Amino acid sequence: MSARASHSLELQSVSRHFGGLKVLQDVNLSIPQGGIFGLIGPNGAGKTTVFNLITGLLPPTSGSIRFNGQDLAGLRPHQITRLGLGRTFQNIRLFKEMSLLENVMVGMHAHLGYGAFGLLAGSGLFRSEERRARERARELLSWVRLEHKAHETADNLSYGEQRKLELARALATEPRLLLLDEPVAGMNSSEKTELMHEIRNIHARGYTIFMIEHDMRFVMGLCQEIAVLNFGRIIAQGGPEAIRTNPQVIEAYLGREDDEPTSAAAQGEPA
User: Fold this and answer.
1) How far is CA 173 from CA 84, 103, 238, in A?
2) What backbone phi and psi angles, to 5 degrees, belong to 210?
3) Quick check: 234 and 29 in contact, CB under 8 A?
4) Beta-sheet pairing, 225-230 with 208-212
5) Which residues are paired to 227 by β-bridges?
């Protein structure tokens, strides 16, 4: 799916305060449908707070958040997930004693057609839905090249593989917009390259992707448009080259005393 002029997610004048601490101030963002959008910024800029507001873990102090035209105000996280917003987290949240297949199937529970009675009775609908869920889980594991480990426990995976499993589980929620919170945090360079390939493939399957990430090279290599958050405010937005050379962005990452805009952050090195 190619990027279109329409927007799937819009934040209008969104602020979030914790007492006297203004974590986000008047944030405006429009996430294009069908694209890969990045949100970057120094540590403590408020990036994860943006995701927590979008997914209903926190309410905004002011402003509005709309997804495909629907106001998300007052909706609980599971209701927002059902609307088509899937998410991964900075800290991996897997059921490590469960198999990979079971972990992915957990992400499907909101879309399975049987209720508690069907589960207890072992009805035909339950068996049919369970079979469908297993087939879909295997397919999603194949997207991240983990299908050969479907019956292993998640605890046996490498760190990079656990990240990919979490991605597959987020896809199991059937998202129309996939939020990735620092997807390559803690990965080595080869794991990052692998995940970049997986994300490109997922995008090519028609998913809109919105990611937070510190690794500038990763973001610059994937995102068609990038916004920069600093001290709770958007200070720049545009394509990778415009962001890479933006003086405010360079200052936000390097500080005023750096005279060379060709240093690591300006060149797209990890920050």
Assistant:
1) 8, 12, 30
2) -125, 115
3) yes
4) unpaired
5) 39, 237
Q: d(Cα 142, Cα 136) in Å, to the nearest integer? A: 10
- Find the angle CA(141)-CA(185)-CA(188) to the nearest 5 degrees: 80
Measure the CA–CA gap between 191 and 143, rounded to whole angstroms: 15
DSSP 154: G
Distance, CA of 199 to CA of 181 (rounded, Å):
13
List per-residue pLDDT tens for the chain, 271 residues long.
333 446 689 999 999 999 889 999 999 999 989 999 999 998 888 999 999 999 999 999 999 999 999 999 999 999 999 999 999 988 888 888 999 999 999 888 755 544 434 433 444 556 777 888 899 999 999 999 999 999 999 999 999 999 999 999 999 999 999 999 999 988 999 999 999 999 999 999 999 999 999 888 899 999 999 999 999 999 999 999 999 999 999 888 766 544 443 333 434 433 3
CA neighbor of 168 nearest in space, from 131, 129, 139, 130: 139
Strands 70-71 and 233-238: unpaired
**To which H or E segment does residue 49 belong?**
helix 47-54
Torsions phi, psi of 26, nearest 5? 55, 55
Which residues 6+ apart lie within 8 Å of 78 measured at CB?
110
Length of the chain measured in residues: 271
Please state the pTM of the whole predicted model.
0.83
Asked if 192 and 218 touch (Cβ cutoff 8 Å), the reply is: yes
Phi and psi dihedrals of 113, rounded to 5?
-90, -5
